[in-house]
Amino acid sequence: MDDILKGYAEAATPDLISRFDNLDCPEIYAPVIDLLPSTPCRIADIGSGTGRDAAWFAAQGHDVLAVEPVRELREPGMRLHPSQRISWLDDSLPGLVKARQQGVFDLVILCGVWHHVDHGLRQTAMESLSEMTAAGGLLIMSLRHGPAPEGRRAFAISPSETTSEAARLGFTLIRQADVASIQAANRALGVRWTWLALQKEELPQRPRSVFQP
């Protein structure tokens, strides 16, 4: 991952930061927007970049952990979005060692991140995400297909392999949606996305005793 993070650091110009931060969240999340929580909850935004999505969720009353390993994106994001509902953390996939110490979350989001995780690291990464997702909670991922910008290496993604790996850890696929990029330049390059919404199985309830206290 180090070369990819370095690529983002080198690309983090004011123009790129502005372009990332000004994308429209309702348009981005349109394929899954009806599944997003409507009442305040805990959300982990993995690979939060400039905090665009974290700020959108925070404005709706959610408490958000914004996990971003690239300082050149994280620090401008902290200045752009100084919300008390956002906690910033320098951490990264696959281990998310510090993030996993923050407890479990009702919603874990990976928007435009998974294609940067090498095939050999995805099992570990999914285990980390599973540990962070509360029972009954949602893991929502957008998987990028198509070329990546120079310096930000991408790996091919199979949605079926991703859902199978998640299923091994107790997730059920509740939605899969294939969409074109919302950015004209990316559409011209043939970039498209698969959105996956995965629900973590509920913990089984303990049977009630037939004996009265």
The count of strands amounts to 7
Helix-strand category: alpha/beta
The description of the largest β-sheet is:
7 strands, mixed
Give the CATH level 1 class: Alpha Beta
Q: Determine the fraction of residues in helical runs and give it as a percent range.
A: 25-40%
Spatial order of the strands forming the largest sheet: 3-2-1-4-5-7-6
Name some characteristics of this structure.
Rossmann fold; alpha/beta; about 210 residues; 7 strands; disordered C terminus
Summary?
With 213 residues, the chain is an alpha/beta fold. The protein is built from 8 helices and 7 strands, in the order H-H-H-E-H-E-H-E-E-H-E-H-E-H-E.
Strand and helix layout:
Blueprint lengths: L1 H10 L2 H8 L3 H4 L13 E5 L5 H8 L3 E5 L3 H10 L5 E4 L15 E7 L10 H11 E13 L13 H10 L2 E10 L3 H5 L3 E9 L13
Parallel strand pairs: 1-2, 1-4, 2-3, 4-5
Antiparallel strand pairs: 5-7, 6-7
Please characterize this protein's 3D structure.
With 213 residues, this protein is α/β, with parallel strands linked by helices. The chain has one domain: Rossmann fold (3-Layer(aba) Sandwich), CATH 3.40.50.150. It contains eight helices and seven strands. It has helices at residues 2-11, 14-21, 25-28, 52-59, 71-80, 122-132, 159-168, 184-188, and strands at 42-46, 63-67, 86-89, 105-111, 133-145, 171-180, 192-200. It has a seven-stranded mixed β-sheet with strand order 3-2-1-4-5-7-6, sandwiched between helices. Helix 6 (122-132) links the parallel strand 4 (105-111) and strand 5. Residues 208-213 have low confidence and may be disordered.
